[in-house]
Amino acid sequence: MNNNINHPTISVDEIIRPTRVEVDLKILAENFKKIKEYAAPAKVMSVLKANAYGHGLVRVAQLMQELNADYLGVAVLEEGILLREQGITKPILVLGGIWGNQIPFFLKHDLTITASSIEKLKQIDELAAQMKKTAKVHLKIDTGIERIGVHYYNAEKFLEASLRYKNVIIEGIYSHFANSEKKNLSYTKLQLERFQEVLRFYEKRSLETPVRHFSNSGAILQMPEANFDMVRPGIILYGVYPSDEVKRTIEVKPALTWKSLVVYFKVVKAGHPVGYGSAWKSDRDTRAVTIPVGYGDGYLRSMSHKAEVLLNGKRYPVIGTISMDQIVVNIKSESAYNGDEVILIGSNDSSKITVEELAQWAGTIPYEILTNINTRVPRVYVD
Ligand SMILES: *Cc1c(COP(=O)(O)O)cnc(C)c1O
Q: Whose CA is nearest to atom 1 of ligand 1?
């Protein structure tokens, strides 16, 4: 229970901050199993970047290891090193681009490198030789998102070159979709065709094909023909769908609840403005409570004048501009007491507030809401 990377010296029982994120490990495990079953026989790389989409990197990685996920995916080197230091032994692919000085750290911690050019492969090979190690590499092909990777139309030379390096094992080859969560899948199909064309390289030369992977959540849900040898679920692992329009072919449930407690109650008099900028006031007396959460925790300021919370089973509006550390909730003529539970994301018996709603209030996507709940908010794990 006390594997909280954000407060490594404080056990959960000691955490006294009323604002906290609760992660239900049983729901996470169920989501993982459903995805695994649906995508079988493809292997599963659980994507854990950005603090496991806000759920807490180390504990979620431990769970994935217990569930025997085939691979773990992170975005940056430091996330991979932290997992190794915390005893995670599963293979870990760093999905992001690298620069040369980082390569020795990949080798030292047995992290799999994404290679996006011949030059990088050469550098990896040289450093691996120096360190008397064998580097594990996945080749990245850009089939139409223009971030990192060798363009599909230049891939043949890249694949040809990749066969030359003695200190590098080309374990995998992959690409990434730009629009797989959309209803219209024509661009996704085009990307798939481009990748298939690139892969013919191995067939034509009768070479063994490295582990092929392409599908993120959107494609796992909507395009099983892109599963190849492994899939890379991120957001659906956490029980959130990548868009409203995506086909919900796997039923997953949100694992994260964001909670706080009422710490203050008062009556706001008619005409007395609430918050910075005095942007809200009422023409009658109203009851209000203060909750110790704000944009400094990732409760985004752009949700001001739109956000609602659950208190004693009912929805109430957040009033005034969201501050760094506090919000004020209008409970009108109803009662609430210090210590009453407030739900910012999650459900109780009668109603719920979803990540999608927060995203709508903030003018963003669920991914950004989850990954912005920052490390000041303790993560508590329940099962
Ligand atoms: C983030 C990411 C994923 C997972 O994406 P979701 O939409 O969250 O499933 C998969 N592959 C790569 C390369 C990524 O960067």
A: 234
